[in-house]
Design goal:
single chain; 449 residues; alpha+beta; Beta-Lactamase; 2 domains; 5-stranded antiparallel sheet; 14 strands; 30% helix; 15% strand; disordered C terminus
Length: 449
């Protein structure tokens, strides 16, 4: 009887002990909400909390992306409304000063690669970090325009010399104040390269030539900077992003994107929609196709190939699938931290859903950009088949222009569209598991980013 009592006592003791003990992943510092409501010391401790947690979680490219995504999640640990983290470069021997390149932005993904040095309080803050020896530094904005207590701290990727950067917390600004001019002025000279520009893409062969040129261009640029262990040189990559959203790489419906080739298919660059950076491309279109999984199947089998699916066409109003209201999305998502709800903001793409309903013919290449590491990337682009001869990067495929009578051309184009729709629907067999997105209203809304 005594043994039974002892066993029962031990059982309940274990329950109590485990119920009060924090989980291994528990946070050990203030959240963004607490730092926002607190004082300067709370903001300092928030950034130190960020450094500790980042050191534990960021041990791979996937870990970096998942953490960056968690830092953008409103009402999560790292962002609460207008309190969020901005990560910028630290000066190092080149023409860029500290704060000239936004490497991460918790509120405005579109601000990536821009500079905030034109704002005096921000410039003073990042200059102070230079001589702080890793300590948190803070400034007060007496005007209150950019925040009440603003702090910054230096950080780095473990074991990677030269990959130092600066985290800033408590600083809030308007998107229009992010200046891309310095990064755009440093865009590489592409004259004489012979690569096909985006405005010349109007059919499948020209799409292939365009993407092959993109692959060569990126490999050439990344070869100019040092990288450790085959890792992507993030600072150079981010610096080039505004260049890739301009001609010759972007025109109308033609742009490219980059995905890390893993089971989670994380986007690291999107020439049209910055919100798709640091999020998974495992998205279900209106035909039930899991686009990211289908792309992975194609490149896994033969390193490159085509896929027809449904997506947002940037030159077609009303085909967008976006959040109607800001709020949590039911279900779990691979890029969210344990226990965190994923918030979707009004007008943004719905997590787990393809962002549009236009038929797209995509082409994909598996590449390592010459880095020679263990991580591979999927480089992709696509065209939008239409009945009219669009041409010139406007999203149209000039498939039959000048190839016979108008009735014959119209009939042939109709055949192509029906065939494309059939391929999209038949792709359901490769769709894989559907993501758990339920009970979230969507609307077609014109969105120009």
């Amino acid at each position: 009887m005594m043994k039974k009592v002892a066993a029962v006592t031990l059982f309940f003791f274990c329950i109590i002990a485990f119920s009060v003990a924090p989980p291994a992943s528990a946070h050990d510092g203030p959240t963004a909400e607490e730092a926002s409501a607190g004082d300067m010391d709370d903001m300092k401790n928030f950034l130190l909390h960020l450094k500790r947690h980042r050191a534990q979680r960021v041990t791979s490219d996937e870990g970096r992306i998942e953490f960056r995504n968690a830092m953008r999640n409103n009402n999560g640990v790292w962002r609460h409304d207008d309190t969020y983290v901005i990560t910028v470069n630290k000066s190092g021997g080149d023409s860029f000063q500290s704060g000239d390149i936004i490497l991460f932005h918790g509120k405005h993904p579109e601000a990536l690669s821009a500079s905030l040095r034109g704002i005096p309080v921000f410039r003073n803050l990042v200059d102070m970090v230079e001589g702080a020896g890793g300590e948190v530094v803070c400034v007060r904005d007496n005007s209150g325009e950019y925040g009440n207590h603003i702090c910054a701290v230096e950080d780095s990727d473990t074991g990677e010399a030269g990959d130092s950067f600066i985290h800033v917390g408590g600083f809030d600004h308007e998107l229009r104040e992010a200046d891309h001019s310095k990064s755009l002025a440093a865009c590489p000279d592409l004259s004489g390269k012979g690569w096909l520009s985006a405005d010349m893409v109007n059919d499948e062969p020209s799409l292939v030539r365009y993407l092959e040129g993109v692959n060569e261009h990126i490999a050439e640029e990344l070869a100019k900077v040092s990288h450790s262990g085959g890792r992507l040189p993030l600072e150079r990559m981010v610096q080039l992003m505004p260049c890739w959203r301009e001609p010759p790489w972007q025109s109308g419906s033609i742009y490219f994107y980059i995905i890390i080739y893993t089971d989670k298919q994380y986007g690291i660059f999107n020439g049209l929609t910055p919100q798709f950076q640091d999020t998974t491309l495992l998205l279900i279109d209106d035909n039930g196709l899991n686009v990211g999984q289908a792309v992975r199947d194609i490149v896994e089998e033969r390193n490159e190939g085509f896929l027809t699916y449904l997506w947002d066409d940037p030159v077609v109003p009303g085909d967008e699938v976006v959040c109607e209201e800001t709020g949590p999305v039911p279900g779990t998502f691979p890029e969210s931290e344990e226990g965190e709800e994923v918030f979707c903001e009004v007008g943004s793409p719905i997590p787990g859903r393809s962002p549009g309903t236009s038929v797209k013919r995509g082409y994909f290449i598996l590449t390592d950009f010459g880095l020679g590491g263990s991580t591979e990337y999927v480089l992709g682009s696509g065209i939008y088949p239409k009945s009219e001869a669009g041409g010139g990067g406007g999203g149209g495929c000039a498939i039959v222009a000048g190839s016979g009578s108008e009735p014959e051309a119209a009939a042939f184009n109709l055949f192509l569209i029906v065939a494309a729709l059939f391929m999209a629907i038949s792709g359901k067999s490769r769709s894989g598991e559907k993501l758990p997105v339920r009970d979230l209203r969507a609307r077609r809304k014109s969105m120009r980013l």
